């Protein structure tokens, strides 16, 4: 099943606009990428996709490459000094590294670098030079990332950041390319409070307007006038990134060691390999089906699907070991793909449950009660301290788990806690080494110490939720409320001001055609053309898996009328978030 | 998407007015490309890859042909035209072509290993061979899956026809019972009741379909080993082979190691007392790599 949404839109733009556009029958090309463009490319194209369009090898621009002078090169790079200089160097000496160059910048190339290229030898062999305006990663169909894990530090570190202005400009440009790619010209809003929210929103507005001048079709269409872009800071909901979630994707990324979306596990296959590596992405249809499901439903569903599959292929299976592929594979190797898929998810679910059953079940109960302020029956929590002390004193529970509990306790208290109390908790938990994680949250504007830095900050009022949930999954991310309110046009204008007053919503406009462009949309690819409005949310400092899930849930609830996209500089796991917080009061490692 | 080629030419012509040396540059470039001969292995690898690709495409074409042949067998009892092959013949052709492609892939893998041994794993030709090999292996697997799917749909279609024919003679059979009957070959169970033109026709059709299914299953059985070999091939390459980031980063690690070793070699070399005495340009020698 082909991916849909963001991945499809960007994948199509790159495959058609870049690779196919310079394809010549019978001629192979080399594709050169830098770090950012490689990440973008990798998230929406596969090796076989680009091979099918005449690319025979992908190289990293920043490493020394052997010349392949008989082939032309496609450079898909960001317009930054390092990459541009590497490009120029490829054609500096007498022997050119490649036969010719087709250059595609991810976004606007600054004048200085452009002139450098024009003056260098490489200019003589440049056959193509375009700016594709894609400077973000389509992580999922409705999730984007700007691939900057240092963002939390850049925004919220205790040391002043002198490059902050430049950084905000770059960020704004990246967000603008997202809107450009989706042909959206949304009304921009930001959460009132932190200065950075307003600054970023303003910058995005300026970039967006510049893009629209070059690309007037952005935002065209009656419904598009309702699209909105919301800028929000991480400190607005500090609970969601630290809570233990029990949905498949969030749980797996929290409890297991999954790097770069690759899950590794041991199994017996048909060959000799024991280690299987699987990429968890949208090409895995089963992953798309399961990722937002509660773990209790996952194992049940996969087992049921596997059994049905085996029956339909008349594979006799004994209940003994569904995960043991080798027997089934030997009998029917033509079903290797499907069987591997089932095996992967069975293993993944089992691994999650194993880690969970250790000590997490009790922990999750306490966490949910603290986050909701009430127990599963709806009775308000009377003595929170009583429930957390046993956890803090338990030596088998890890430091980070204890910190998460302490933080949830502090947020439950709404007005922060006294310094003495905090010190006592830290002592009980024996987490002195990591205690700065707690205090550093104040940099995000959270109310930690009663009467301290952020004394007036409180978490927002919550919407009433009546849908039935599992007992250990009662919490819904605060952003979900915001999404629903924005869609229903109930989002308070004082708390979420517009950068620029939006045009009044004209409900009488029906014909979707523009005087200048006629029925421009009829020629668009189906993935790009979405007549309905979009709600795009950008979180400064990282987005959590549960918030990503909310985007899909809210979209589904509108019956497809709205599409909610959410993204940030990077995707958080509870561990990575706590690690980021830990380093906020330190000097950055110059080697990173 | 913004095209800036014209802008580039403008900048070029502005700067060219300042320098009169670019004619030399051009001829130097021509000389340069002429002097470094293209790697013959590279040409060979790309050619072979293209040939294999064409063979796989040919298998896909034969699968389409098979679809037609199966369809014809299902809808007419008469023999197909002289020039058209029957399903069995196509099945044999697909099997042989698939086996041949697999052989060629093994040879490509061997060549790649040889290149790696001789030139190191940072050699571009070796890496191009690797990429092509991995993608072609996947393509072969996909085409074999397509073959399997085609045969399985035909099997289903035959089964449904048998079921319908049995209903015609008033004998309703459930899915599972039908499967059992097909597997045991006991469809002649109702042959004793064959009376009248309709029943007779139904019986003939059923017999025909059953023969189809048996031949189909024999074809699949015959190609089982090829399925297994292709599955082993792709499994050995690992699941994340299609991931571009992995493909680019793997090579990075190798280069970094090489650079580290290079640096070490330079340091050891520098401290070589003989070199110190005679001041050789060993450092430059290492740099060329």
Automatic annotation (TrEMBL), chain A:
DNA damage keyword on record: no
Classification via Pfam families: Sec1
Keyword terms of this UniProt record: Protein transport, Transport
Keyword Iron-sulfur: no
Top-level taxon of the source organism: Eukaryota
InterPro entries, alphabetized: Sec-1-like_dom1, Sec-1-like_dom3a, Sec1-like, Sec1-like_dom2, Sec1-like_sf
Gene Ontology terms describing biological process: protein transport; vesicle-mediated transport
GO molecular function: syntaxin binding
Family under the similarity heading: Belongs to the STXBP/unc-18/SEC1 family.
Designated name of the protein: Syntaxin binding protein 2
Organism: Sander lucioperca (Pike-perch)
Gene name linked to the record: stxbp2
UniProtKB/TrEMBL annotation, chain B:
Entry-linked InterPro entries: SNARE (IPR010989), Syntaxin (IPR045242), Syntaxin_N (IPR006011), T_SNARE_dom (IPR000727)
Positions of region (Disordered): 1-22
GO cellular component, one term: presynaptic active zone membrane
Keyword Coiled coil: yes
SMART domains: SynN, t_SNARE
GO BP terms, alphabetized: intracellular protein transport; synaptic vesicle fusion to presynaptic active zone membrane; vesicle docking
Residues in coiled coil: 49-76
UniProt keyword list: Coiled coil
Gene Ontology molecular function, alphabetical: SNAP receptor activity; SNARE binding
Domain T-SNARE coiled-coil homology: start-end pairs: 203-265
Keyword Coiled coil in record: yes
Family of the protein in this entry: Belongs to the syntaxin family.
PANTHER family: SYNTAXIN, SYNTAXIN 11B, TANDEM DUPLICATE 1-RELATED
The protein's name in its UniProt record: Syntaxin 11
Taxon lineage: Eukaryota, Metazoa, Chordata, Craniata, Vertebrata
